[in-house]
Amino acid sequence: MNATQQEEKEYLEVIKEKLTLAVRRVDDAVKQFSDELREKKRYIHEHQSGMDDADMVAAGQSINRMAFTGEAAVTRKRKLLKLGQSPYFGRLDFAPQGQAAVPVYIGIYSFLDEQQRRNLIYDWRAPISSLFYDFELGEASYVTPGGTIRGAIELKRQYKIRDGRLEFMLDSAVNIHDDVLQQELAKSSDDKMKTIVATIQRDQNAVIRNEDATVMVIQGVAGSGKTSIALHRIAFLLYRYRETIAAKDILIISPNKVFADYISNVLPELGEEHIPELGMEELAADLLESHYTFQTFFEQVQALLEHHDAAFIERIRFKSSFEFLSKLNQFLLHIENTYFQWADLRVGRTVVPVAFLQQKFRTYHRVPLLKRFALVANDVRAYVRDAAGRKLTNGEKNTIGDALPRLFKLHSVLDLYRDFYRWIGRPELLKLDQRLHLEYADVFALIYLRIRLEGLTAYDQVKHLLVDEMQDYTPVQYAVLSRLFPCRKTILGDVSQTVNPYSASSAEAIERVFPQADVVRLLRSYRSTLEITAFAQRITPNPDILPLERHGPEPAVVRYGNQDEELQAIQELIQGFQTSGSHSLGIICKTLAQAKRAYQVLQAPTVHLLTDESTTFKEGVIITTAHLAKGLEFDEVIVPFASARTFKTEVDKSMLYVACTRAMHRLTLTYSGELTGFLSA
Ligand SMILES: Nc1ncnc2c1ncn2[C@@H]1O[C@H](COP(=O)(O)OP(=O)(O)OP(=O)(O)O)[C@@H](O)[C@H]1O
């Protein structure tokens, strides 16, 4: 069936026709729903006075049901229209053992021929579609909930269909033909992150479809598709577990609002709803219930970039260590053992002995300390009731409830946190100003103590947690995430792209917090040309990286007399970019102060400054810092001020690496004075 290009073209027309008919049917259904809805509302309005409460509830429910069905129809229409533009991207002719081959067309959504009750297009997430990503011609198998289906792939074909027209088709003997991938990667960037369904690679597919891992850690080199894969994985899980997980049950912890905006199109493109997203700082503010103000991660990194403060670095280093987490845990035990001022409790004529109280507190050792008081109070009430042989008065009950917390010497979690530093003999490691403004490194330690003492359950409804930029979070932060989100997790990042080497976590470190984690390493890099990848390797070498064979111009490193001349040259580069046909140019500086300075000089309607307060990603020319550019990509990147004066510390080196790895096709570094030493390798 459909062997030649001509036959495929004709078949495409047939499918488009069926899609058009399906759209028409949905339109008719929507019209019918809205007529019925209007009619129902009118009926209720007119008969309101004669209806009792039960009638009203039933009518309300029926309206809600109709509205819901109507919404579902609108969603379906949107999907059908999208399919009309590009119904499928792949086909395989699969012959299950002992049966003849049938063509399986694979697209972004499934499409059923309602008359024939036959799938004309399979969703890329359907079990059978995994054949397309996992196998070449010949023997193949796929797993269904009912078991493994074995057989052979007799034909494998890829299509590029745009605006309903077949641009090309390609029969492939190898797994996801390189030509199509190359074409995709050579394209100019879109304004937002895009889907990669047509060219998902085998190792990526394994991550996307992994159903077993309770914690999946993806450690991948720059541009290896970690973020793309994580989002496709979410789409897959939403499809696979559609009865039990909805988009609202998933939470993405994202580094900043611009990144959240940048990735926001992917799931809707894949036909899923928008996923809730939260920054670490928002989470912190929520958990501290606005009792404290605190430095943000961005401010911490900027402080490190702007001046070298050995004591500040020492505080960050310590609080990012495993030792810190285990010391906090030891301190919690210490509190239990020493913060009680035990005394017999007298209620009326009954004396509740210390031994009874201690034994009860021990019984509940799994319950967070401050939650135990209520449980022990109940036991004490029972004890007193039995001893007195009568029911207790409300006054007596309250006395018991009030008396127990008084046994414990706790004023506030912050006092306790202060005590901790005295206990470890390092009071100098806590720096709190008069206004109790916390340093970023203290925020999650304080939250951790709160969770351990009070047991917060605010996020129990989340069923899957996605954490991007995992290298930027410390063991204490992971301990908080682990207790707060007992659900499955996907955690991804790249330790080479840390913006704060004093607090970076590698996959190995994260495995210590989540020993049950499945760790995958992705070494193939898709974003940048070979030349750019090789250049970035000079800054932070990784001998295991596998760059894709795609070429472009050599990165340029250009010296100017001074910074004004540099900016003038960048102005000319911007003009060149504007006529180049590329979509995005990132001018990536080390600090926000430098970015602001560059913006002052380069200001124009198409030039945007991205700061830590920005909320949206913009197309065109963006001036920002390496920290904020993390996770983003640009057709072309310019790194100004790449001098030895600007890039000299470990933090600076990370920034330079992040900045250079944002470039897809072209990279230019400008400097004046002496060139940074990080490029000498
Ligand atoms: N299988 C694929 N097919 C087509 N494009 C891909 C594929 N995998 C990755 N890419 C592209 O590679 C680029 C990098 O992907 P992504 O941003 O997800 O990587 P990352 O590992 O999160 O990067 P980084 O850590 O450097 O921010 C994107 O343009 C993405 O579309």
TrEMBL record:
ATP binds at G220, V221, A222, G223, S224, G225, K226, T227. It catalyses: Couples ATP hydrolysis with the unwinding of duplex DNA by translocating in the 3'-5' direction; ATP + H2O = ADP + phosphate + H(+). The keyword Isomerase applies. Residues 199-529 form the UvrD-like helicase ATP-binding domain. Gene3D superfamilies: P-loop containing nucleotide triphosphate hydrolases. It comes from the Bacteria. One of its GO terms (cellular component) is cytosol. It is an enzyme of class 5 (isomerase). Keywords: ATP-binding, Helicase, Hydrolase, Isomerase, Nucleotide-binding. One of its GO terms (molecular function) is ATP hydrolysis activity. SUPFAM superfamilies: P-loop containing nucleoside triphosphate hydrolases. It holds the Pfam family UvrD-helicase. GO terms for biological process: recombinational repair. Its EC number is 5.6.2.4. PANTHER family: DNA HELICASE IV (PTHR11070:SF17), UVRD / RECB / PCRA DNA HELICASE FAMILY MEMBER (PTHR11070). This is DNA 3'-5' helicase. It comes from Hymenobacter aquaticus.
